[in-house]
Amino acid sequence: MNKICLKVNGKSHETEISSNLRLIDFLRDELKLKGTKEGCSEGECGACTVIVNGKTVNSCLVLAASCNNAEITTIEGIGSDELHPLQKAFMEVGAVQCGYCIPGMLLSAKAILDKNLNASEEEIREGISGNLCRCTGYQKIVEGVTLAKQYMGGR
Ligand code: FES
Ligand code: FES
């Protein structure tokens, strides 16, 4: 067992966990944050993407025990009071179909825009390249991120 202290969506948690518990299972099963999705379980699809200390990670590949003192953002951490500009823009351009990839996609997009509000289309495509979507063909998703960028004051 490992004792960890971490912040998830701004809320502090101090708990004992087994040393082989994956971050995705900690989030979904222990904290009941079911918005983080599991697809491939091997780092290929990006459905399980969350932000740890400002960087996106595949939570299926990360041990929760390695996140001691980390700050984590899951999809539940954005847009809880009102829609995040990314959520608003995705809805407006019709970037959501089945929705399974969307939590991870939004977090990757958020990480891109948090770093660079003027990200180019190429940088947006590169930033979401680890997130697979079997429905949309990506064009609407790129349009959604571009519109959100404008809502957030970028060019
Ligand atoms: S479930 Fe983690 S990358 Fe696919
Ligand atoms: S909207 Fe269905 S996988 Fe992306």
From TrEMBL:
Acyltransferase listed as a keyword: no
Record flagged with keyword Ion transport: no
Record's keyword terms, sorted: 2Fe-2S, Iron, Iron-sulfur, Metal-binding, Oxidoreductase
Domain 2Fe-2S ferredoxin-type as annotated: residue spans: 2-78
Superkingdom as given in the UniProt entry: Bacteria
The protein, known as: (2Fe-2S)-binding protein
Organism: Clostridium rhizosphaerae
